[in-house]
Design brief:
The protein has 274 residues and is an all-alpha fold. The chain is built from twelve helices and no strands. Helix 4 packs antiparallel against helix 7 and helix 4 runs antiparallel to helix 9.
Length: 274
């Protein structure tokens, strides 16, 4: 009687047995996903209407239709007051698309694929916010270029550059509200409706279009605590000259508050939904 000896099974290496691992940092993963968002925007340029055509329409409409009545007949003087303020409004409205796009990606199952990848759970959200920097810079450049053609004359172009950095930084922090809403509601249309309901009171209940002193007392109280008002005051001071420190400090405080509150809420809502 013979005994058959079975060959010993070859042990697989640990890396092969445990599956793929990642050595990249969350920051690198977010940059890669930001590049994906930019490629998507490049292939659908009509998605840039809200940061190219829409701001120009607002600027021309308020300058030439309402400027003469508001500024005592001088549309050019009103343009110097309006443009820095309008940047605060339009850059906040531009963040609406961020939540809409993320909501649409979830509905299409894109984030289900992200979950199967060895990446940080927050990387898709951070990448989307990073990609929006390009949109905000385009908006800023378009408004300054068109405003210059219309007669806008800043006191300092160094101040204009500082305004760009401040406005984009605020937009990145404010955008986390849109991300959070996009994680909560079911449709992109609902994201737009909720965000516009939030942005319109902040934009029009501010010093964007008229001086705060012309408003009734109860509205002035709201304007003084409105983060858009402080952003506009800082941008206006940097561009046209004037006091900046107070509004700049409150703007930075608002930015920190938005990040501390809404970034964790957005990531938590994403983990629950995706």
């Amino acid at each position: 009687m013979t005994t058959t000896t079975l060959p010993a099974q070859r042990q697989l290496p640990l890396a092969a047995a445990t599956g793929p691992t990642t050595t990249s940092s969350p920051w690198t993963q977010a940059r890669v996903l930001a590049r994906r968002s930019l490629i998507k925007t490049w292939r659908t340029p009509e998605a840039l209407i809200d940061v190219t055509l829409q701001p120009v329409i607002f600027l021309a409409l308020f300058t030439y239709v309402f400027g003469g009545a508001i500024a005592g007949g001088s549309q050019e003087d009103y343009l110097q007051f309006l443009l820095p303020g309008l940047l605060g409004q339009t850059i906040a409205m531009a963040s609406v698309a961020l939540g809409q796009n993320l909501n649409a990606d979830i509905e299409k199952g894109v984030f289900d694929r992200f979950r199967s990848l060895p990446i940080a759970r927050s990387a898709p959200l951070v990448g989307a916010v990073m990609a929006d920097v390009v949109r905000y810079v385009i908006l800023f450049v378009v408004m300054i270029a068109v405003g210059t053609v219309m007669g806008f004359d800043p006191a300092s172009w160094t101040g204009v550059l500082g305004s760009l950095l401040l406005a984009v930084g605020f937009a990145l922090c404010f955008g986390w509200i849109s991300v959070y809403v996009g994680m909560l509601v079911r449709t992109p249309g609902a994201v737009q409706g909720i965000m516009f309901a939030l942005i319109f009171p902040l934009a029009f209940g501010s010093n964007v279009f008229v001086s705060t002193e012309t408003m009734p007392g109860w509205l002035q109280a709201f304007v003084h605590v409105n983060p858009i008002s402080h952003l506009v005051g800082a941008v206006r001071g940097l561009m046209m000259g004037g006091p900046v420190a107070g509004d700049l400090v409150w703007t930075l405080v608002s930015m920190a508050g938005l990040l501390v509150v809404f970034m964790p809420l957005a990531v938590r809502a994403y983990r629950r939904r995706a």
